[in-house]
Amino acid sequence: MKIAFFQLAFALVFLGLAGCTTTPAKLKPVSPKADTAVVVPEKAKTDEPQNAPAPISAASAEVKLGGLPPGEFAILVESLPAGGTVVVNGIPVGRAPQRIVLPGSSHGFFRDDVSLKVRFIAQDATRTSQTVEELLTPLDRIPAIVRFTPSGATRVAR
Predict the structure, then answer these.
(1) Distance between CA 7 and CA 1 in Å, rounded?
(2) Among 22, 77, 87, 140, which is most buried by a count of CB atoms within 10 Å?
(3) 132, 154 in Cβ contact below 8 A?
């Protein structure tokens, strides 16, 4: 009886230390010093229509998204219609528009492959949900803005 009690107590302590008995933590942004993406949500503007993102030029995006340490670059991910779910390297980070900070080389190229996806959810039963993916490689310059539509993605250069 005592052996079974100690085995049960040991199993509960072991599972508790391993994190198996706790609820999963929410996705937290990674510090800007890491080699992974950092997500900073954009504030939605109330005076704009819900289905169209505000037009932003590459120059204004650079000013708006600037102020990063060397070797880090911000990308603004937009969707039309607005509100598509943004996924970076398989991790859902929120709804578009999203500001994503990624590591890059001193010349403005990606260090690693980056997968950007936007999931458009169907508004009614007559339509289907769609996922659009844009794969960014170390051979690509880091764009200022990536705009997603159900038909594809376009990059706006820095």
Answers:
(1) 10
(2) 77
(3) no
Instruction: Tell me how far apart the alpha carbons of residues 150 and 158 are, in angstroms, rounded to a whole number.
Output: 24
Euclidean distance between the first and the last CA atom of the chain, given in angstroms as a whole number:
70
Question: What is the DSSP-derived secondary structure letter of residue 37?
Answer: -
Q: Which of 132, 137, 72, 57 is nearest to 96 (CA)?
A: 132
Q: How far is CA 10 from CA 21, 30, 137, 154, in A?
A: 14, 34, 47, 55
Identify whether the C-beta of residue 117 lies closer than 8 Å to the C-beta of residue 86. yes
**Residue 30 is inside which H or E element, if any?**
none
Q: What is the pLDDT of residues 116-125, one digit of tens each?
A: 999 999 888 8
User: Distance (Å, rounded) from C-alpha 57 to C-alpha 143?
Assistant: 12
- CA 153 – CA 117 distance, rounded (Å): 9
From residue 128, give the alpha-carbon distance in Å to each of 77, 83, 120, 123, 131.
22, 16, 9, 8, 10
